Each structure stands twice: as structure tokens, then as C-alpha cells.
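Suppose you are handed a protein chain with no further information: no name, no annotation, nothing but its sequence. What can you learn? This example shows the usual starting point.
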Amino acid sequence: MNPDTLAPEQIQKHLHTKWLGQHFYYEESLDSTNNRAKALAQEGAAHGTVVLTEEQVSGKGRMGRGWVTPKGSSIAMTCILRPKFPPQRASMLTLLMGLSVAQACQRQYQLDAWIKWPNDIVVSGKKICGILTEMNAEAEEIHDVVIGVGINGNLTDFPENLRQKATSLQKELGQTILRAPLVAAVLETFEENYEKFCIQEDLSAFMETYNQILINRNRQVRVLKSGETLEGVAHGINSQGELLVEKQDQSMVHIYAGEVSVRGLDDYV
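A reasonable first move is to predict its three-dimensional structure. Written in C-alpha cells, the prediction is:
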């Protein structure tokens, strides 16, 4: 068997979790791991089920953007969760997964990985990972949450419009990586962080660690939301995962991690 496959038996060689990844759904090619995960959740898939594919042909990013994963090149996976906490807490799971991916990259490769709020992981000023969280809920109850993770693993080239803002682990490390150990590391880290999160149902236990690797922190940012633009200095997140932005008049705005884009004044970060 190809040692770099994302087949469950390869990942399980490295995986040490209690519930996350105890059930895998794997296909060579999928349109979108999030789409398949949502369908499986509706069919009753267990809490902690993980969907993986070698090739994602119609992957989804935030704000309607696409995310294509060429065959055998990267990591496209989605975790199915069935939280007991209220729906308004779910947006923080995107930040929790972002932190988990950054920590896993740091531990596996000693990479200087940063978070670009709310859902990107950045290395050398370029995006290496994106996260998309989708929820199926009623007013007071979450039926399921799916968290999609796309990590640029062994990509060596990008479309011209992405070359200035995207990179891969192979490009940064100067060598091909094995993807299965990284999947295991991300799942183990997220499981640990998720269990801590569920105690207080907020990010108070993670604020210090998160803000230390928040690339937006203490920088001028431009926030784009619902056709409106806001500029100011980002001061990190609060316990609810909101980005605190100080405007020119010194007033502080709390930015909710919904359909919003945050970038530097002149470039991606």
C-alpha cells in the first residue's frame, strides 16, 4: 500500500484518540468532504466520525469560495460533532480547530505556524490551511456540526492568482510529507482542545495561547462584512472568539466570526 494514502488503516497506525476518528468514512474522490459529512450526519453518523478523501473536486471555502484538492496532494477532511452546548457557541469551534491545526504543525514539523483570524493557518505569510464550519440546528439545540479542514500538503504549484498568498508544507519544509501522521496529530490535538472547551463552553482557556500566534494581533486590519468596511488595529480575541478591533476614534469593536473577511491594509495578512 502507498504509505502516503489517507486510508483509515494508515491513519490509525498513528492515532491515539478516545472518540475522534474512531469511525472513518473514506473515498478516493469526493465532491466535498463537508457535503458528504452533512449527509452522513443526517443518516445518524456518530459523534467524532471523520470523512477523508484523496481528491476533492468541488470543495467549499468560506463565503462561497471554492477549495479544490488535487488527488494525493493534500489533506481534505471533515469532522462530525454532536455538541451538547447551545448553537451560539458553535462559531468558536472554527477558532478551536484553527488553533489545533497550528499546534499540530508546530509539533510535527517545528513550523512557525500562525493563525489569521478567523479560519486560516499561515506560514511565511501565506495560507497553508482553511477551515469551514457548518451547523444543523434549531433555536436551542444543535443536531450536528461539521468542521472541514483543508491543508496544503505536497502541492508544489498554485494558480497564478494564489501564488502570492498560498503555500504548502512541502514548499515550506523543502521535502515531501507523509499526510497520515499529520491527520492523526490534528485529530489528537483537536480532541484534547474540544474536551477543555466543553468545560466552560468558551475560549477563556485558550485566549493566551491563541493570541500569541495570532498574526493579525497589533496590526492594522481591514474588516469586510455585508458590504461594509471597517479599519483599525486588531488586539486579539476575547473569550467568545470575537476579534477586538480598535478604530481610529479609539472605540473598540467586537467582530463576530461569521461571514466576515479580515486582511491587512495592503496584502493578505
